[in-house]
Fold:
Amino acid sequence: MVGIKGFPVSAKVACQGIEGAFSQSAAETLFAKPDIIYAPEFRDVFEAVDKGLAKYGILPIENSNAGSVTEVYDLFKSYKFFIVRAVKMPVEHFLLGTKGATLENIKEVHTHHMAVKQCTAFLKKYPHIKVVISANTAEAAKFISQSGRKDIAAIASQKCAKVYNLSVLKKNIEDSSNNCTRFICISKECEVYNDADKISIMLTLEHRAGSLYEVIKFFADNNLNLTKLESRPITGSNFEFMFYFDLEAKLKDKSVSDLIDKLKKTVPYFLFLGNYREV
Amino acid sequence: MVGIKGFPVSAKVACQGIEGAFSQSAAETLFAKPDIIYAPEFRDVFEAVDKGLAKYGILPIENSNAGSVTEVYDLFKSYKFFIVRAVKMPVEHFLLGTKGATLENIKEVHTHHMAVKQCTAFLKKYPHIKVVISANTAEAAKFISQSGRKDIAAIASQKCAKVYNLSVLKKNIEDSSNNCTRFICISKECEVYNDADKISIMLTLEHRAGSLYEVIKFFADNNLNLTKLESRPITGSNFEFMFYFDLEAKLKDKSVSDLIDKLKKTVPYFLFLGNYREV
Structure:
């Protein structure tokens, strides 16, 4: 299904988490008018799309510091869905409290465990603040809001301040000013829009000298630039590897689609994840 | 300094954390009789070795689920130290409480944020248990021990039960039975023991089609097997990549040392991390 013209401005979209989650911001960047439903886990986002509760799903696929989100790649293996769009969002964390709360009086912060890792420097500066883990950052913000307490705060997105009526006690408490997360938009069907210029695939290789070389030679011979190559031990296996590739390529080029077909036949496991535009 | 015979059985070793840390178990697997000093952060382990407070340092370099520990790779760039030994340790987490505590009465668990990620299934089964973050798992165990309370517990190593006089409330609460962490032993000097059969390097590549291919062709032409290839955006840069390679190779083979010299001259950035045995 190559060559669909414009990516839709509006659609029913499933996001992981609750209102105020980072995936909500991603959805609102990808679609002008998303109609968002929320699903508790990554798997539930795939399920919502599978059951037709939503046309698209929004998920994080890679963080510039923490690397690939293995769990999402693993779900592609089960569901065989496709990436139809992507967006790179800066990771920004805000310290949010109820009206009247001040940083000086905060004894405890609630947030997701990834945010703890991403705000190490801030948390080290305030060693007396106890850190409590929530299912996600938006849940943390909701909890603080409902508590009404002035001695506890949440680490969450700026959006959560508005959604949960909280005050910003400190903005941009994330460690690196260059930390980004890539979010993808998934679909049950393979939708390839006219502006698609990136291809994602995942595959395994035989464990012998040269097997990776041969795959990369395919790309080099076709003058395709690799923008990502990551090898990750397969979860549950003992250091067998899954390779994740991103290529600057268009499926509508015959040389590219031929290459994909050829690759498929030569490696033990191959999954085409989509041809899409990253905005 | 190629061809040192036996890896020492005893040495002064710096580990990150405090007594009971996972790096202590790694040190005790690598050395029959390690004389361990503890350093608070990864950087402090490098510092301890740099200042001669310890001959060797023990650090995690890669987890089979979470991938490479970018922070440790980054420290190699500053310190130019070498890997002289490695060991793969299974990730095992235990729920530890004071004497008389039972799982049923636990209202709060303390642990490191990585352990939260690694015990997701267990924590989901007990949603009423509040999770509080500690600097590391051993600190969490120490805190529980000192508190004397029966309603709070730590997620930490089995070793911590003995070190901090705690009871095992539940063993092996980690998600995957195959989750491993590779620990490395670092040294200021490049020590290559006779049994060394693995080479680690890190490098950057020019951003053009074929640049990665050319590097991998080097390896394939020399019949060297790649056991790891990971690309990671460089921290603080905007999706520029650092590549981490592990090779099955011996520096004492002239073809290998020639290859290393050649590579060094062709890529923008190159760092040889060591030739060592993984036990």
